[in-house]
Amino acid sequence: MARPMTLTEKILAAHAGKADVSPGDIISISLDLVMANELSAAVAITEFRKIQGATKVWDASKIALVPSHFTPNKDIATATLSSLMRSFAKEQQIENYFEVGRGGIEHVVLPENGMIGPGMTIIGGDSHTTTYGGLGAFATGVGSTDIAAAFATGEMWVRVPPSIKIVYEGTLRPYTSAKDIILQTIGRIGVDGAIYAALEFTGPTVKELPISGRFTMANMSIEAGAKNGIFAVDASAEAYCAAVGKKDYTVYHADKNAEYQDVIAIDCSGIEPQVAIPWLPENTKNASDLNHLTVAQAVIGTCTNGRIEDMRQAAEVLKGRKIHPDVRAIVIPGSQKVYMQCIKEGLAEIFVEAGCVLSTPTCGPCVGGHMGVLSEGERCISTTNRNFRGRMGHVKSEVYLAGPYVAAASAIAGFITGPEQLGAAAPVRAEVTA
Amino acid sequence: MILRGTAHKYGKNVDTDVIIPGRYCNLIDPEQLGKHALEDLDANFVAKAKPGDLIVADTNFGCGSSREVAAVALKGAGVAGVVAKSFARIFYRNCINTGLPIFECPEGVDGINDGDTITVDADNGLITNEKTGAKFKATQFPKFMQDLIANGGLLRYVEKRLQEKAAAAPGQS
To answer: What is the number of other CB atoms lying within 10 angstroms of the CB of residue A32?
Structure first.
């Protein structure tokens, strides 16, 4: 009889053609989807060309290419990378190529186009590929050479990770979001707390989260060093798949007596809106304890928080208010679909009325690329996922990570704050002496 | 293969953004990338590092982005290898795939100071601190990875897999 397995082990075993697998096993798995953006694809294509016997990709329908990081291209060098990927997509007849203006950030685009489903194995040339675990897929980021190998074979070697189960309990406070839960988690276990491991997110609190919130949490699994982060598939996940037209997937469940490297219980009822201060995502504090810090910029969007639910959270705070005169607020819907939805729901008007930049979808400032790079000494409150030194620009600029509520509230106040502290007081410009 | 050079020692969680900042990720050429290696962690690194030098670091080296150019940038700067207490997993794979030798050795990291001359026998993972004479043994790679490295890396492995598949499916091109 097969050994009891975790959710991640179940998916890996099925894709390796094995009855069971154990942590530490090195196996070859078949891949259901291989994704790259213009940065990872450029190198992957160059490496793919070096493989003797590989002229065609193994299955064009299982490859997705998404220009996202420095697009619309900011300079000639990045335009060249995009061109390389565009030509490859044509040459190999890869239909899932999402051109600028019809796509956005890969981790927002692929799920909303029905390309992600439970039980799939997905690799991406981007570390935040872990996002797709929100729908119960095994998804992990890899470098370009691994992508090249997958283009050719549709396979990848994997060391089966041990799993760490996190059990979330308690009802969330009104302005506490999925971002706050994952920041709190990384604060608890550290940026290497799940190194080489799989994170399995469970418990009644996360069962109540919308799929967008699960994507946010799975997205940041990598910030704890995890290979992948994964949620059990439930009625909400299946409803999401139905809504985006994803069919033909297999639902796996963790066995009751599966072995975990660790089981960690987190009570969510006391979690206040969180902020991770430089230079690591594990440096989490309550937003309310950082009121002494002024901000020059607020970024709302990206693969972590660029979905319509995130836009709604930001708009809820920004509605009828004005961005502080000393702050630039940059709102970046994660995809064209989210962008259109912002227009239809009237969010776009709220953002522009408040004095925000409303940007085309791009990773842009998160990776220090464009659309909001910081100068020396500037501080940014951001819904992105990394606050490493120099991440958003100058080596002496600072990124503070938070959810959309905190980023929006801070943009109004001019200093780091949660929406509750803005007060029920009038939707007018806050007077600030920070 | 014997690696010998000066150890440049750094702390925990050296992330890929400081190994090669995003602003240089529009580059592909190893030499160009190498000019900016570790720029945001240690602005003097490129000036002081000699070809063949090694990096010695604490836990979780290479955390963050999947950018393969991080490993390439270190190679481009002449770094012969990295000794660390642990590596972030994508960076670990990228090093195997790009041929940057890495060694997991917690005791070695504690027994090496910045500026010490060290020798690493890449074949058996034996690390010697020439200054103190202390010797350390790095964790062995699992057999699969040893074979992968010995047989010329991932792309050669892929070529073999493609041949196997073609043989298993006669009549298909």
So the answer is: 23
